[in-house]
Amino acid sequence: MIRESIALSCPVCAESLEAAGSPARVLSCPAGHRFDAAKQGYFNLLTGRGTTFREDTPAMVEARARFLAAGHYAPLADALAEESTAVVPGGIPRILDAGAGTGYYLDTVAGALEATRGARPEAVALDISRFAMRRAAKLPRTRALVWDLWRPLPVADAQFEVLMDVFAPRNGGEFSRVLVPGGVALVATPLPDHLAEAIGPLGMLSIGAGKEESVAAALGPAFEPLRSREIRTPLRLSDDDAVRLALMGPAGHHHDEADIRRRLAGSPLPDVVTAAFRLQVFRRR
Ligand SMILES: C[S@@+](CC[C@H](N)C(=O)[O-])C[C@H]1O[C@@H](n2cnc3c(N)ncnc32)[C@H](O)[C@@H]1O
Ligand SMILES: [Zn+2]
Hints:
Largest sheet: 8 strands, mixed
Bound molecules: S-adenosylmethionine, zinc ion
Number of helices: 9
Radius of gyration: 19 Å
CATH superfamily: Vaccinia Virus protein VP39
Mean pLDDT: 94
Structural class: alpha/beta
Strand content: 25-35%
Number of strands: 12
């Protein structure tokens, strides 16, 4: 049975975390731990906890939002939507997007499920970047939480029918805990040749492409592999697109727009750059 709402758990004491207000402005637990919404509507559950992780900056998040809005990675979003409508058990599922970024893929998947199942799924978006969660908080029926995926997730056991992880860390133990048995995990990773033509000219760090088996190993024995497909899509990038592509990734921590434009002037991109993704679908046993 699919319930109406998603039970969150307090990141300090693990008791239940309840929302007050509509839209919620406060999350609090019976022990008195309390988290106020940021004015953009997301909740930062990492307050007061040091993290060594460097969050994506506003400029990086802006670059990602604009690059994705131009539709360059729409074939991946469509594939995620197709798999979710085909594989997710009937009813209105609840979705967790782990490392959701701006929420672009979550919006596509939730929209596709809404179109086929008749109501918009409830969702939780988790990301360590506050600037990403500002944007994800705008999606309908989505609770956007700043959190570190390597810590125990701030949700009760068995709360989701769908988990999405698109180019984000994979915490298999926690993913299996928060999915219902029979729930589905959709995991996207870059293939080894993803953006190969652009890495040199844009000064991008080449992304450590996880092998198919290593994704399965990271998820662990609770996940049965159902499907795996490759998605290759030719990108025709303007200079502005290319700058956004460079700034939205880890290179955005090390280079600014002027650096990238200088590089592009010296070594322009070829007419076509290939994006190459793998999408793996798993069932929680
Ligand atoms: C390559 S981006 C992908 C974002 C989004 N899924 C997309 O494809 O547009 C990776 C995301 O993972 C987030 N991330 C990285 N490490 C994280 C961690 N330990 N906990 C939570 N989020 C993390 C980053 O902030 C970033 O938004
Ligand atoms: Zn608490």
